[in-house]
Amino acid sequence: MEFISEWFWFFLLLPIAAVSGWIVGRRGGERHSDTQVSRLSTTYFRGLNYLLNEQPDKAIELFLHIAELDKDTFETQVALGHLFRRRGEVDRAIRLHQALVQRPGLSDHQRVQALLALGEDYMRSGLLDRAETVFSDLVALDMRAPLALRHLIGIYQAERDWDKAIENARRFEEATGEPMGKLIAQFECELAERHRSAGEVDQAREAVRRAYEADTNSVRAGMLEGRIEVDAGQDAAAIRAFERVARVDTDYLPEILPPLLACYERVGDAPGARAFLAEMCEHYRGISPVLALTRMVEDADGVAAARAYLAQQLKDRPSVRGEAALIDLTLAEGADPLATLHDLKHITDQLLVRNPSYRCNRCGFGARSHHWQCPSCKEWGTIKPLLNYAVV
């Protein structure tokens, strides 16, 4: 996991190199100092010129030359190691940072820097076990080492060791004050999924409970709770869990509707199902609850009532799926298709008005009219007509 950009380390290295050159110039004595500093300054500005011209490899070679003149400069060596890693020379970065870790006389702050850099080298090379050891040592050295803790969380996620991921997420929250509840809830849900797959119902329920403790509005925990209760034959409890999900985040309504309606059917509570769907139609602009309610109207009141209800709803929320359902109901009813054709024409016009006719093929910006310059990404000539808008 790389948190620091390549350019950050380039420009961190520039002032370090300049200071190193000044120090070396002074060590050379008064008689030679002007010449030494002048030569190093020339090298420094040549390196800067390479960076500005996007030639980082040549720049690094020059900075290596400067660093060789003062090998005791800790910050220069750390920065060079980061640059090696960014260039893909991970083995070289590891050797450099290993030497720094073993250097005697380091302050605690410097040892933290060196260990952190070495751990990141190991992660880049895929040596997660070594990275885990280094970051664990780093946390033991400095309990408020948030970057090391974040790396450990990433390692345990990759290894699917959810208990350790949770432990280190809590330590990270304690060290930084940054809320980690949503992430911890996801880890608890992973544990719940594992227990559910193994048939360990009580352990799965306990993991879901902990997920709610970490994030009271966890959608995933609610969906899991509903599935666990369905597996256990507890339809009433499953209904409560699924409805909670829908009220917390209506975007997940299409995910929970099929199992929720199946629960309602098994308990024989059609009025409860219709009331819930009516509530969702008020808060969710998608077509899923409308189609579900249309099927219930058809079962209770017949095809004609269902077709009339759906046609009315589609005037406010046009939908291709809704159009298909309306056509099916019209064919099933055997009614005069002329009225349905008028309804379909109105729905189609609404869809055409709402959909973009042009889209930027660089950033995806949608527009109703053509622009030569994209209003979003500011690129020229990237907005083109959509295929479904083209006449030919």
Protein model, in words:
This protein is mainly α. The chain has a domain at 356-392. The chain has helices spanning 6-27, 30-52, 56-68, 74-86, 90-101, 108-125, 128-141, 146-158, 162-176, 181-197, 201-214, 219-231, 235-248, 253-267, 270-283, 288-301, 303-316, 320-333, 337-354, and strands at residues 358-360, 366-367, 383-385. α2 (30-52) packs antiparallel against α3 (56-68), α6 runs parallel beside α8 and α11 (201-214) packs antiparallel against α12 (219-231). The longest helix is centred in the N-terminal third of the chain and has 23 residues, at 30-52. It is flat.
Topology:
Blueprint: H1 6-27, H2 30-52, H3 56-68, H4 74-86, H5 90-101, H6 108-125, H7 128-141, H8 146-158, H9 162-176, H10 181-197, H11 201-214, H12 219-231, H13 235-248, H14 253-267, H15 270-283, H16 288-301, H17 303-316, H18 320-333, H19 337-354, E1 358-360, E2 366-367, E3 383-385
Antiparallel strand pairs: 1-2, 1-3
Helix pairs in contact: 1-2, 1-3, 1-4, 2-3, 3-4, 4-5, 4-6, 5-6, 6-7, 6-8, 7-8, 8-9, 9-10, 10-11, 10-12, 11-12, 12-13, 12-14, 13-14, 14-15, 15-16, 16-17, 17-18, 18-19
Order of helices and strands: HHHHHHHHHHHHHHHHHHHEEE
Q: Largest sheet, described in full?
A: 3 strands, antiparallel
Tell the overall outline.
flat
DSSP strand count: 3
**Helix segment count?**
19
Determine the mean pLDDT: 75
Q: Which ranges are low-confidence, i.e. pLDDT below 50, for 5 or more consecutive residues?
A: 1-9, 16-40
Tell me what portion of residues adopts beta-strand conformation. under 5%
Rg, alpha carbons:
32 Å
The secondary-structure class comes to mainly alpha
Instruction: Please state how the strands of the largest beta sheet are arranged side by side.
Output: 2-1-3
Question: What gap, in angstroms, lies between the N and C termini?
Answer: 49 Å
Helix content: over 70%
Subcellular location: Cell inner membrane
Membrane topology: Single-pass membrane protein
Keywords: Cell inner membrane, Cell membrane, Iron, Membrane, Metal-binding, Repeat, TPR repeat, Transmembrane, Transmembrane helix
Protein name: Lipopolysaccharide assembly protein B
